[in-house]
Amino acid sequence: MTYHVYLVDDDRFLLDLYAVKFKNAGHDVTVFGGGEELLAALRKEGAAVPDVILLDVIMPGMTGFETLEAIRKEGLAKDAKFIFLSNQGQDSDIESAKKLSADGYIIKASAIPSEVFAETMRILEGGSAH
């Protein structure tokens, strides 16, 4: 099955690494440099709803948490899975992700791109992140 994956991160290098991983596995990938960019795309009339959105937590402008909050409030991308990607592993961040009903939380510093890919696929195919 081909999934449509949205990647949101202000780190262009990481965005490219993750994008290549998903594209090489045959998935459609769209990348965004920040939360505002993602929201603008999701708000467009007739916008495609991705299967999964991987969101960096710490970004200039809106954080990943603020972005997901806005998505939830506006009822955007209702069927998408949401996975936070962060260098932050604090309990408070993981708790914030849970409060926003995120489907997963991956700590970038301890996960290579193939692990990020594998965890994303596990969540997409019905596994729980908890």
Furnish the topology, listing elements before pairings.
Blueprint: E1 4-8, H1 12-24, E2 28-32, H2 35-43, E3 52-56, H3 64-74, E4 81-86, H4 91-99, E5 104-107, H5 113-124
Parallel strand pairs: 1-2, 1-3, 3-4, 4-5
Helix pairs in contact: 1-5, 2-3
Tell me what you see in this structure.
There is one protein chain. Helix 1 (12-24) crosses helix 5 and helix 2 (35-43) packs parallel to helix 3. This protein has 130 residues and is of the alpha/beta class. The chain has one domain (4-124): Rossmann fold (3-Layer(aba) Sandwich). It has five helices and five strands, in the order E-H-E-H-E-H-E-H-E-H. A five-stranded parallel sheet has the order 2-1-3-4-5, with helices on both faces.
Instruction: Give me the strand/helix succession.
Output: EHEHEHEHEH
The quaternary structure here is single chain
Low-confidence stretches: none
Largest sheet: 5 strands, parallel
Distance between the termini: 24 Å
* CATH fold title: Rossmann fold
- The fraction of residues assigned to DSSP E strands is 15-25%
Number of domains: 1
Mean pLDDT score: 93
Tags for this model:
130 residues, alpha/beta, Rossmann fold, 5-stranded parallel beta sheet, 5 strands, 42% helix
Question: What's the gist of this structure?
Answer:
42% of the residues lie in helices and 19% in strands. The chain has 130 residues and is an alpha/beta fold.
